Amino acid sequence: MVKRGRLLIATSNPGKLREIRHVFADLDVELADLKEFGKLPQPLEDGLTFEENARKKALHYAGLTGLWTLADDSGLEVDALGGQPGVNSARFAGPAQDAAANNIKLIRCLGEVPPKRRSARFRCVIAIADGQRVSATAAGVFEGVIIDEPRGQNGFGYDPYFLLPELGQTVAELEPAHKNRISHRGQALQNIRPKLEALL
Ligand code: IMP
């Protein structure tokens, strides 16, 4: 089927890419991948909020590629840690973006914090830009609690430690389609969908 345009999904995180491709599979737009462009300079993710970083990333990659570009900035806020790791979620344990090291640090930081004070949320902001400006943004929030022992094999990042109390499952125990229906990223993608369709 010939699609109506091309949209670059500007992420090098395979977990995010999989989820975005899944939610947008039925859109009348061809989804392009950063891999197509070889090694590009990375954007500076020095914003103080998810929205600032999502905007920076979308503008950066749209400028480099000339394509309409969708970027996601997301992360985990843990109340007992004053909202950390927040915008530093990918680099919590250092610049290597190593999920295992980030999870070890998260559980160590929470130490003896009791279960009833383990509330946390994932946040996601998505921005769509062309080379000149950001044309749309949308956000999603996903509430849960942090547990000490990992559970489940699906998802990525902090998912095995993020328990959804109403379901009695971690996000890594959910089927991918289930995560996409209820997650911060799934919500942000659904929220931006009509704005994207209007831009096409
Ligand atoms: P970003 O590339 O700066 O947006 O980094 C996002 C980071 O937040 C990821 O590397 C993960 O550590 C974490 N994160 C964001 N969304 C999720 C999710 O859906 N599951 C688990 N971890 C996530």
Ligands bound to this protein structure: inosinic acid
Q: What count of structural domains?
A: 1
The end-to-end distance, rounded to whole angstroms, is 16 Å
Q: Kindly name the structural category.
A: alpha/beta
Measured on Cα atoms, how large is the radius of gyration? Answer: 17 Å
Strand fraction equals 15-25%
Task: Bin the helical content.
Answer: 25-40%
What is the CATH topology? Answer: Maf protein
* Major beta-sheet overview: 7 strands, mixed
Question: How does this structure look, described?
Answer:
It is a single chain. This protein has a single domain (3-199), classed as Maf protein (Alpha-Beta Complex). It has helices at residues 14-23, 50-65, 99-110, 176-182, 184-199; strands spanning 6-9, 30-33, 68-78, 119-129, 134-146, 162-164, 169-170. The mean pLDDT is 95. The longest helix is centred in the first third of the chain and has 16 residues, at 50-65. The chain has five helices and seven strands. 30% of the residues lie in helices and 24% in strands. The chain has 200 residues and is an alpha/beta fold. The chain starts with 5 loop residues before the first strand and ends with a helix. Strands 2-1-3-4-5-6-7 form a seven-stranded mixed β-sheet. It is globular. Bound molecules: inosinic acid.
Secondary-structure blueprint:
Layout lengths: L5 E4 L4 H10 L6 E4 L16 H16 L2 E11 L20 H12 L8 E11 L4 E13 L15 E3 L4 E2 L5 H7 L1 H16 L1
Parallel strand pairs: 1-2, 1-3
Antiparallel strand pairs: 3-4, 4-5, 5-6, 6-7
Helix pairs in contact: 1-5, 4-5
The structure holds inosinic acid.
